[in-house]
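User: New here, please read:
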Amino acid sequence: MDLVQPTTCCRTLLLLSSFLLVLDGHFICWQAVLRCQQEKECELAYNQYLAACDAYLKGNRKQCPSHCISALVRLNQTQNGPDLENCDCGQDQQCRRVKRTIEPCIPRRLPPDADSMGCTEARQRCEEEPGCHSTLTAYLSNCGQLFNGRKCTLKCKSTIQQMLLIPSGGLLNRCVCDGVERPFCEVVKENMGKLCAIGEQSLSTVDPESEDMYEDEEEEPRTDREEGEADTVTSYSGTGRTQLSVSP
């Protein structure tokens, strides 16, 4: 879908069509885009999203970059940004493609009645207990190469095993990746499944605010590609869930 600045005709059309919803109660995506462009903050956030997520949407990045996730969060905090969350693409195939592509970047939140605990809550519970908190800190310090997808060192593996012996640490093994930490959490979970042979057990979450702690005494210099993929780790502000269903 090519985005253009709304003309006077488009603005009139927007006013006439703003009440037209698809049968399931969601806006049509072109309507959601026009509504966003009528709000200065939303338009700015949307343009930032297009720039931040461009490389990922084009398939030039394997993992969702942190600045793309942050842009999605900011967009969802605007007045009309949430209208883009569940808008309907209709028969627009490019819109559908973008919706599928951007899904892994979405800060997913579990419903209150979900059977599983989200990893954000599991980590918070661990941090509230001194024993679990100290082991989690060691995990963040000792598993830098695991987070980068390089290898699971003996020290990292030993720390994971210690964590799994703690009740609150066990929650980190069973939790579901959610919130703004979701993309990086899922990458770590995948890396651990491939690199750490600890039966069926694995911790599935880390705190992305600990980027500066991801060092390992055995770590070797990283390639340019690894440096790029490490951009997934970052500090986030704000929360929200934005599912963009429209294409640049």
Remarks:
- Residues 40-57 form the longest helix (18 residues).
- DSSP finds twelve helices and no strands in the chain.
- Confidence is low (pLDDT under 50) at residues 1-23, 204-248.
- The chain has two domains: 8-105, 119-217.
